[in-house]
Automatic annotation (TrEMBL):
Record SUPFAM superfamilies: ClpP/crotonase (SSF52096)
Gene3D superfamilies the UniProt entry points to: 2-enoyl-CoA Hydratase, Chain A, domain 1, Lyase 2-enoyl-coa Hydratase, Chain A, domain 2
InterPro entries named in the record: ClpP/crotonase-like_dom_sf, Enoyl-CoA_hydra/iso, Enoyl-CoA_hydra_C
Family: Belongs to the enoyl-CoA hydratase/isomerase family.
Molecular function (Gene Ontology), one example: enoyl-CoA hydratase activity
NCBIfam families named in the record: PRK07659.1
Name of this chain's protein: Enoyl-CoA hydratase
Top-level taxon of the source organism: Bacteria
UniProt-listed Enzyme Commission number(s): 4.2.1.17
UniProt keywords, alphabetically: Lyase
Species assigned in the record: Cytobacillus horneckiae
Length: 263
């Protein structure tokens, strides 16, 4: 196994036709700070242009896939001009992940929450440990989903069910997420075994034909995804200025239930 790219936040390994991208902030449950977001975007671009790679696996180190956006990144009040830069980096990562000419798999253990859940939804296939949990929990801190989740959830659930899931923001066990059509497979026993089985199935399939189908659909849907990402960027900036968001953050830090007032 060759290690081609290692930083403090992202690891890339390539073995044969399979690249594994690992989010590497286990001490924070792989929460996504600016460095990790930019690192992931850089790695995904590199892998996208690596001809010998056909399959890309996204996973998290330690106990979680990703707990979502890093709370410190959300508190960029000292220099609000940094926020659009962060959102642009998120959007670049999502578009790259969604449209790269490779087959992509998210291997989820532990939490896949907020932006972490969004990244998983941007991949072609999600295989989850049976004890893992999924949460589109932006609403708990007075924000809207970003990372293209409005696009991905509507495409999987339809508009009405997507809205209800976003507004409720409740965590789901892997089996519930599977029944809703948000997860493709729940590992019966070992996550790594289930992942490897799927990889081997794809490696023994006409991968180029599969990738061509992906490209046709991605090219068709890219304008809508770009529009949704731009709307999320504008909407998130507006939500960050609300009293409810400030209350949500304060409550999170103080480990109490927020008191929202719709302002």
């Amino acid at each position: 196994m060759a290690i081609d790219f290692v930083t403090d936040t992202v690891n890339l390994t390539i073995e044969g036709r399979v690249a594994t991208v690992e989010m590497n902030r286990p001490e924070s449950l792989n929460s996504l700070n600016v460095e990790m977001i930019k690192g992931l975007a850089s790695v995904m671009k590199e892998v996208s242009n690596t001809e010998e790679v056909d399959i890309v696996v996204l996973k998290g180190s330690g106990r979680a896939f990703s707990s979502g956006g890093d709370i410190k990144t959300m508190l960029l009040e000292a220099n609000e001009s940094d926020f659009p830069v962060v959102m642009d980096a998120i959007n670049e990562l999502v578009v790259t992940l969604y449209s790269m000419p490779k087959l992509t798999i998210s291997a989820v253990k532990g939490a896949a929450a907020g932006l972490g859940f969004s990244l998983a939804l941007a991949t072609d296939y999600i295989v989850a440990d049976k004890e893992s949990k999924f949460a589109m929990n932006f609403i708990g801190i007075g924000l809207i989903p970003d990372g293209g989740s409005h696009f991905f959830l509507e495409s999987k659930l339809g508009e009405d069910k997507a809205k209800q899931l976003i507004w409720e923001g409740k965590p789901m066990l892997a089996e519930e997420a599977y029944k809703k059509g948000l997860v493709h497979e729940v590992a019966e026993e070992n996550l790594e075994e289930a992942l490897n089985k799927k990889i081997q199935l794809w490696l023994n399939s006409p991968v180029q034909a599969m990738i061509k189908t992906k490209k046709i659909l991605a090219d068709k849907n890219r304008p809508l995804l770009l529009k949704v990402l731009e709307l999320e960027k504008i909407g998130q900036a507006q939500m960050r200025r609300t009293a409810d968001h400030k209350e949500g953050i304060d409550a999170f830090i103080q480990k109490r239930k927020p008191i929202f007032k719709g302002k």
